[in-house]
Amino acid sequence: PSAPSSPASCHSAHSPAAATGAGGWSPLVSNKYQWLQIDLGERTEITAVATQGGYGSSDWVTSYLLMFSDSGQNWKQYRQEESIWAFSGNTNADSVVYYKLQHSIKARFLRFVPLDWNPNGRIGMRIEVYGCTYRSEVVGFDGKSCLIYTLNKKLSNALKDVISLKFKTMQSDGILLHREGQNGDHITMELTKGKLSLLINLGDTKTHPSNAQINITLGSLLDDQHWHSVLIEHFNNQVNFTVDKHTHHFHAKGEFSYLDLDYELSFGGIPMPGKSGTLSRRNFHGCFENIYYNGVNIIDLARRHKSQIYIGNMSFSCLEPQVVPVTFLSSSSFLALRGTSGQDEIFVSFQFRTWNKEGLLLSSKLHQSSGGFLLYLSDGRVKINLHKTGRVLSAGLNNGQWHSVSLSVKRNRITVRVDNDVTSSAHAFIPLQIYSDVFYFGGCPSSGNISECNTSFGGFQGCMRHISIGNKAVDMISIQQNGFGNFSDLQIDLCGITDRCLPNYCEHGGECSQSWNSFHCNCANTGYQGATCHYPIYEQSCEAYKHRGNTSGFYNIDSDGSGPLGPFLVYCNMTDATWTIIQHNRTNLTRAKSANRENPHTVFFKYSASLDQLQATINLADHCEQELAYYCKKSRLLDKLDGIPLSWWIGRTNETHTYWGGSLPAVQKCTCGLEGSCIDSQHYCNCDADRDEWTNDTGFLSYKDHLPVTEIVITDTDRPNSEAAYKLGPLLCRGDRTFWNSASFNTETSYLHFPTFHGEFSADVSFFFKTTASSGVFLENLGIQDFIRIELQSPSEVAFSFDVGNGPSEVIVQSPNSLNDNQWHYVKAERNVKEASLQIDQLPQRSHSAPPDGHIRLQLNSQLFVGGTASRQKGFLGCIRSLRLNGMALDLEERAKITPGVEPGCPGHCSSYGNLCHNGGKCREKYSGFSCDCTFSAYAGPFCKKEISAYFWTGTSVTYNFQEYYTLAKNSSSHASSFYADMTLAREAITFAFRTTRTPSLLLHVSSFYKEYLSVILTRNGSLQIRYKLDSHQDPDVFSISSKSMADGQLQHVKINREEEMLFVEVILLVVGEKVENSDVDEETMKANSQGFVGCLSSVQFNHIAPLKAALHHSSSAPVIVKGRFTESNCGTLTAADSTSSETTHSFADHSGPIDEGKPLANAIRSDSAIIGGVIAVVIFILLCITAIAIRIYKKKGIYSKNEAKGSENEDSAESALKSELSMQNTANENQKEYFF
After folding, report:
1. Is residue 754 within 8 Å of residue 895, measured between CB atoms?
2. How far apart are CA 823 and CA 879, in angstroms?
3. CA angle 522–523–526, rounded 5-degree value
4. Cα–Cα distance between 1043 and 1049 in angstroms, integer?
5. What is the pTM of this model?
6. In this predicted structure, what is the pLDDT of residue 571?
């Protein structure tokens, strides 16, 4: 064959290790049980392979497996990358396809197994293998011996140790390496259940109880009789432990300085004192190769019988056990073996290993009349079915370990035993003579109806070995050469089990479990979601929660998104600015006495989050501050003795700081020193005046890089009468720099570029966009073949496409509404080794599963383009905001400032967030974000949702005067001028809420210059009456709502809308109070008025006037007259009396519980629920009945003047007076009623 131009070499260019003949290999029959095996004569290091088709033919192989073995038995498949099994082969007969192996193979035998070949020809191969000879020293242990190496004390170096070796074994347990010292200190490397553990034990736990033991476990399925490499490097306190390319780095915090080890290493077991060779724990049974300790070849020393080696019974060769495993590849695999007919006893035994919980192990027909015998796995337990009855044996058998099963039938008695355990055995009695023709292992043939094989159970996927029938071992090699028996979809002479949880792709502590084909991550209690627990459940900041419409309360935040830091609990105070409040464990004012230089008063502050989490939160915030108050009496702060200040504090980076509250880092002063207002002008702090009276230096520390305060040290309180006290407030952070960080792309060719995106195994991208264009690329990053791209493909369609080596893949989300409506839309894309997903806004997430054994590594190398592509095609026009990749925010604004065609920032947030402004609040644009203007709303707060309520006492009233129309006509810009357009009001919209027990009561009265009026009263029996008088010559129109008494102390909401002759009234449990001084009203109104109103009025709105708010918040400027006692109250909010919800309080002292602390947080994620200061109010309104009546109301004219009295509450006794007067029941499930008049 024509060789590739440069053969791969280990050291220098070697000739090919093996090659096939001129015509090539072409078997007579082309099926999947053909292979070509090469014997290289000795163990060889193979670095590359090359293939061609058969010479001058149409025979070539399009894909194949490569297997290797030391003995010609017990083969292992070569795997590329983490999960690719097959090599792609040739596309014609003559061209050479060459593969350099990612990691070389050390083996004597190679096997090429064709998987697929030219459909118009047969299997045909010419092969070349490249490599060089492999030298190694081997030693074999029989499980009863060990090898002891005594170190040369002169050459021993305690600072650096390197131990490397290879091992292979079929036993799942055994000691590989042990080094003991005084007091029971020891280091042990041990194989346990096929995994390798490194155990470092400090024997004397009295001296070092904190870290008495380090135990690190790596690797899996290491008992497969193949070579595995181990490397332990210990340098100073850094330890690297590597098993087969998987490395664990850890830092031993000084344990090694305590480890007192003897100058003696033992391999293969633990020698007892006296070195008699008797061993305490399970010894190693298998082979070692190339043991090196600090460069010393230990096996070579042993072979030459050097004095420092103690040898048990061992050989310098590696014996291969004659075990032939079988792999059942799919659920349709089976192995059928002939039984022994007509004998009075049967004995069948085998071993199996699998990850699957279900599968048929063995099935047979034991005698003529029976329905058959089944042995199967169900939920990881072995079960027996005999005559339709099930019996459970040992559990948890799908753990990847070898388990043995034996079945014996003797004189009508049947016994099954698992793992040679007498307790897990079952017995049953069957009549008649035994008849067993065929045993089916692992499944059933799909063709034909075979009565003795039950196909209702799924097939077994896993490995079996040591199959024996009638105490005679089954020769699988002769079965493979079609000697006897029948099989399908088997791999004979290898066990193809792999551990899909190694490496573990479940992030953030998710638990990995697996089946034969795939793995699954359990993300419960991690705070993350998705197929690999990669994406955070919680928002990154309080700002993000606020813009989902949430109100103040406790929330979990995850500052670095999908990064390594977990979520933690904070209090979000949603005012006009959004404050994040993080508490610590010492919030009280603390006194400090009798402290001096030798014995300072030191206090440490522990926060409800780790310092890394705090740092991430502080970095995100616009501004952070922490109040530090220092009270002193003869206790100085800055005065220096020997140039060292008397007191100081320590910040996040462990640096000492001597500036105090309100000052700046560069200036060693207190606030008064900056302002020049200290009580003694010679000093820069009030405390430094050193007076014998209490004074203080208080202020906010606001230099972000130094926060939070972690420690305070006070040294000047040991003189007579000297005392200090300090109080550190919580860490307060405002805003989120990344949430509004945006860029506007003004031309299709403009883009921003950033460094290459690294998301090899998991990548997530999230951002907001806003556009009027119908298509465009949001971001793109290319590799040599791999790429990742997110684009708007059409006005209603976003596509996430990528390639990790399995060909391009695409996830598309269709939106029912168009996305180019110039409003903000949210995009979240994630790709991990299991699946790719895409979500737009609140639409359902779409995801595609990755192929089970494909490429998994995303390799990019170009720059990351945002808002365009490398080819400058299909660029994006519009805005992109809050772009985060794997939890890290990209600073679009900084990059946009220096990029032509791209502007930093993006206007127009109200079109998207305006709906967060409620109750008539108006959305106002800001550079970063928006605010709600509640001027014309009866409500207040950041979203105009906070009720403004007042408590009214007897004789209290609030009057709002609409000014004379001619003064308003001059000042026509005033909002009230609309009242005077045609001197009449054709419509009113009135809303208010009330709570009272007093009847009759006048709630609201609006009267005009023309003696027309509207009054809302509660009559003596508690029914609500609305009285309209729109014509001075007629009696008023009266509308009454009398389904129940409204004076029951519950909160009643009233809405009154009049459109000329049509009046709409809606009552939803609510109250308002007024007093009229006007004789031109009807008798009922006067009766109600004489009593006045006592109770609560809330959220009063008349058209766009909010009289109650004006009286409470703008009484000096608004045309309001207040009589009587009148105080603001929160009686208009639903309190505990209105709903059964209880109050939950959070202690910040120690959050050692699970992540989901405080269950309400789960709801905080959804924008429809609100948590207010830890109290959750659930209000359910049931719409009971709707009656509709239309009544004519006479046309009215004139100007209304409105007297509106408001209810309000007093700090001291008003609330209690109201509460005692009202025996309030639960209003949460009161009825909502609507009336149409």
Report:
1. yes
2. 10
3. 145
4. 16
5. 0.78
6. 94
